[in-house]
Hints:
Radius of gyration: 13 Å
Shape: globular
Low-confidence stretches: none
Number of strands: 11
Amino acid sequence: VKLVESGGGLVQPGGSLRLSCAASGFTFSAYAMAWYRQAPGKERELVAAISWSGGTTDYVDSVKGRFTISRDNAKNTVYLQMNSLKPDDTAVYYCKFQSYWGQGTQVTVSS
């Protein structure tokens, strides 16, 4: 199993980023996927999850209405569209499948 995140970077408050996670080594279309994040000095937290079909999604309260998780099963990729970013969103964002983690991508929200 391999999970490779991309799309992180530095953005001003109120800005947007789209993270991508390219998956390989398993039947991507058959499994739920999730995005987590870990801010400095804090525990890793679940940000968003999506079912195998994309028909069911769930979000931590702090990102509801701002973030959207989606997937493209033809491309074996899961996305996290992040809008109206806040400094509190600064963290390393990780893609997760069962017990497998990607290497993470840094998102920094700062003026």
